[in-house]
């Protein structure tokens, strides 16, 4: 069966990054009112336009990751600016009427009594991680929890790093009108060797969306000059059924969109990528260069800071300055083979992302009165 390349590209663009290319939380300033005033400059996920092919969304995984990091950094910066990291150990601040842009919330902010005040698990953690500090946000109207952030020192994500968990539908129900999706992001490591694993479960994020659950792993390499990315997105059953016309996809659920790429971190941000749509064959994922059982010729895809350049580029024809095709091949192979917890994108791991491992850790009940500093 011959497939028109443009149709496949259009389908992939829709299925792969719809969940990655929408606004998670666009609030410029969070404010916790007197007597302690904190300003959180949270950058949200910006709506992204699809490129001229399925590759148009490749870098949106980095966009989401960058904004997870920006969210954490902005909170820690705000806390540092008001002297939070010098508060006495064991201090707890509670506020019940906090206007955060268009979001009205309740908050609890804990300065722990020890470096292991909060020992928590996460879906990407091989063992519990210890944190001194914690911020929890609830929706003011009904006490539904919106976000938890666990962290240690300002400007330092070595050691246990920082973990944020949030519910998209609670934070922004107008934008996220799909299922009650939980997102978890774990950032760890020093600058130049930092890594992030973010995962979500219980999609779709928006009504009619295509993503069920996913995991994305990003790692700085070569002293921070290179960012390597691997991602697996499990499609909803409804979305998977849209691909029944592709040979080998019919009757195979779930389907997994996989992408791997290496991106330079300085302008012009040369990027080399590979993509696949894998069906559930009963074992591990399928093989590279596949749309189910249909072999495609899209690899390698090339980008720079201006967006999509070209696809179908052979390894020998990848220009200098771009990551070699052999390096991207290695990333694709690692998707189904690496067992290290924070880098584990194997099928059983992605299938297992759920309420048992992506969840809130702190108290369920929101504060009922202001207290603390």
**Structural domain tally:** 1
Please give the largest β-sheet: 13 strands, antiparallel
Low-confidence stretches: 1-53
Instruction: Please state roughly what percent of the residues sit in beta strands, choosing from under 5%, 5-15%, 15-25%, 25-35%, 35-45% or over 45%.
Output: 25-35%
Oligomer: single chain
Number of helices: 6
Highlighted features:
16% helix; single chain; alpha+beta; 373 residues; 13-stranded antiparallel sheet; two-stranded antiparallel sheet; 6 helices
Description:
The protein is of the alpha+beta class and 373 residues long. The chain has one domain. 16% of the residues lie in helices and 32% in strands. It is built from 6 helices and 19 strands. The strands form 4 sheets. Strands 3-4-7-8-9-10-11-12-13-14-15-18-19 form a 13-stranded antiparallel beta sheet, with helices on both faces. A two-stranded antiparallel sheet has the order 1-2. It starts with a helix and ends in a 22-residue tail after the last helix.
């Amino acid at each position: 069966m011959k497939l028109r390349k443009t149709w496949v590209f259009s389908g992939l663009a829709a299925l792969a990054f719809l969940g990655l290319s929408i606004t998670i939380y666009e609030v410029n300033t969070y404010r916790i009112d007197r007597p302690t005033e904190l300003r959180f400059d949270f950058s949200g996920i910006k709506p992204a336009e699809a490129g001229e092919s399925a590759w148009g969304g490749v870098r949106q995984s980095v966009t989401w990751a960058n904004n997870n990091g920006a969210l954490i950094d902005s909170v820690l910066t705000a806390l540092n600016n008001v002297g939070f990291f010098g508060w006495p150990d064991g201090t707890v601040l509670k506020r019940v009427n906090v206007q955060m842009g268009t979001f009205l919330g309740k908050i609890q902010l804990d300065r722990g009594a020890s470096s292991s005040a909060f020992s928590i698990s996460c879906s990407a953690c091989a063992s519990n991680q210890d944190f001194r500090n914690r911020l929890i946000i609830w929706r003011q109207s009904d006490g539904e929890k919106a976000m938890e952030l666990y962290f240690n020192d300002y400007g330092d994500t070595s050691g246990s790093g920082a973990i944020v968990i949030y519910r998209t539908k609670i934070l922004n129900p107008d934008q996220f009108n799909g299922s009650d999706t939980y997102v978890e992001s774990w950032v760890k490591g020093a600058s130049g060797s930092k890594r992030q694993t973010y995962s979500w479960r219980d999609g779709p994020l928006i009504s009619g969306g295509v993503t069920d659950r996913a995991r994305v792993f990003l790692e700085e390499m070569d002293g921070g000059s290179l960012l390597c990315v691997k991602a697996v997105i499990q499609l909803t059953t409804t979305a998977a059924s849209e691909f029944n016309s592709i040979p080998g996809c019919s009757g195979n659920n779930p389907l997994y969109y996989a992408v791997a790429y290496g991106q330079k971190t300085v302008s012009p941000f040369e990027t080399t990528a590979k993509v696949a749509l894998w069906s559930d064959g009963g074992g591990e994922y399928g093989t590279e260069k596949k749309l189910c059982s249909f072999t495609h010729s899209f690899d390698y895809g090339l980008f720079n800071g201006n967006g999509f350049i070209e696809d179908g580029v052979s390894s020998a024809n990848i220009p200098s300055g771009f990551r070699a095709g052999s390096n991207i091949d290695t990333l694709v192979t690692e998707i189904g083979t690496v067992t290290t917890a924070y880098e584990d994108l194997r099928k059983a791991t992605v299938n297992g992302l759920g309420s048992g491992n992506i969840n809130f850790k702190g108290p369920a009940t929101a504060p009922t009165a202001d207290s603390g500093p």
